[in-house]
Amino acid sequence: AQKVTQAQTEISVVEKEDVTLDCVYETRDTTYYLFWYKQPPSGELVFLIRRNSFDEQNEISGRYSWNFQKSTSSFNFTITASQVVDSAVYFCALSEPPGAGGTSYGKLTFGQGTILTVHP
Amino acid sequence: GAGVSQSPSNKVTEKGKDVELRCDPISGHTALYWYRQSLGQGLEFLIYFQGNSAPDKSGLPSDRFSAERTGESVSTLTIQRTQQEDSAVYLCASSLAHTEYTYEQYFGPGTRLTVT
């Protein structure tokens, strides 16, 4: 069974601070995909990044960066120089690939989410 | 291009009534998913469509829930005899599909269902 744990329920920071959102996952598969989604107050889930289990390179996109550590089953997300517009709920998710012998068909298993509040 | 759309955006219904929720996926996306988001349960998978077949219905919470999809387009999620515990935001997502590769899913704005 797959499981995603986001231990931080809520984080509060002041603008321009760096913040890291933790994500730990469990899966028995050797091939899998990890995702981060953002849910701003408007409610719509916004895709941020997809990473497959064979690609352990860290990724940077502007102020966002992701650290994938297969050895510790973690996929952490860092926002550098946070801004008020970063305030949202952030979800980490795990998916097995379709056709892997399982029956997931790419469905996502989400963590409970981390509420990030950035104060001006 | 257009994203995933869902209707209605809000639905208030009385306990025991049936409701239909609609999802229009991104054009060309053959994979379609329904999820439910509630305070107590977080985000939960309900059902997956590949084309108009549903190979994974494992997340449907009871036989009061059903869904169908027309061709590779619109999907409707039907809840019969609604109960108060059905109150949640119902999210639809679509993606490209591949037999051995998982694409990212794009989500609609959701339908907030309130059962009174």
Secondary structure: elements and pairs:
The complex is a heterodimer of chains A (120) and B (116).
Chain A: E1 3-5, E2 10-14, E3 19-21, E4 24-26, E5 33-39, E6 46-52, E7 59-61, E8 64-69, E9 74-79, E10 88-95, E11 109-110, E12 114-119
Chain B: E1 5-7, E2 10-13, E3 19-24, E4 31-38, E5 42-50, E6 53-56, E7 65-69, E8 75-79, E9 88-95, E10 106-107, E11 111-115
Parallel strand pairs in B: 2-11
Antiparallel strand pairs in B: 1-3, 3-8, 4-5, 4-9, 5-6, 7-8, 9-10, 9-11
Number of helices of chain B: 0
Task: Report the portion of residues of chain B in β strands.
Answer: over 45%
Based on Cα principal axes, name the global outline of chain A: globular
Number of helices of chain A: 0
Instruction: Find the count of extended strands of chain A (DSSP E, 2+ residues).
Output: 12
Query: What is the straight-line distance between the termini of chain B?
Result: 37 Å
Structure described in brief:
The complex is a heterodimer of chains A (120) and B (116). Chain A is an all-beta fold.
Task: Report what the structure shows.
The complex is a heterodimer of chains A (120) and B (116). Chain A is an all-beta fold. Helix content of chain A is 0%, strand content 49%. In chain A, strands 2, 5, 6, 10, 11 and 12 form a 6-stranded mixed beta sheet that branches. Chain B is mainly beta and 116 residues long. Chain B is 0% helix and 51% strand. Chain B has no helices and 11 strands. Chain B has strands at 5-7, 10-13, 19-24, 31-38, 42-50, 53-56, 65-69, 75-79, 88-95, 106-107, 111-115. In chain B, strands 2, 4, 5, 6, 9, 10 and 11 form a 7-stranded mixed beta sheet that branches. Chain B has a 4-stranded antiparallel beta sheet with strand order 1-3-8-7, with no helix packed on it. Chain B is globular, with a radius of gyration of 14 Å. The mean pLDDT of chain B is 94. Chain A binds chain B through residues 33, 35, 37, 42-47, 50, 52, 91, 95-100, 103-113, and chain B through 31, 33, 35, 42-43, 45, 48, 50, 55-56, 58-59, 89, 91, 93, 95, 97-110.
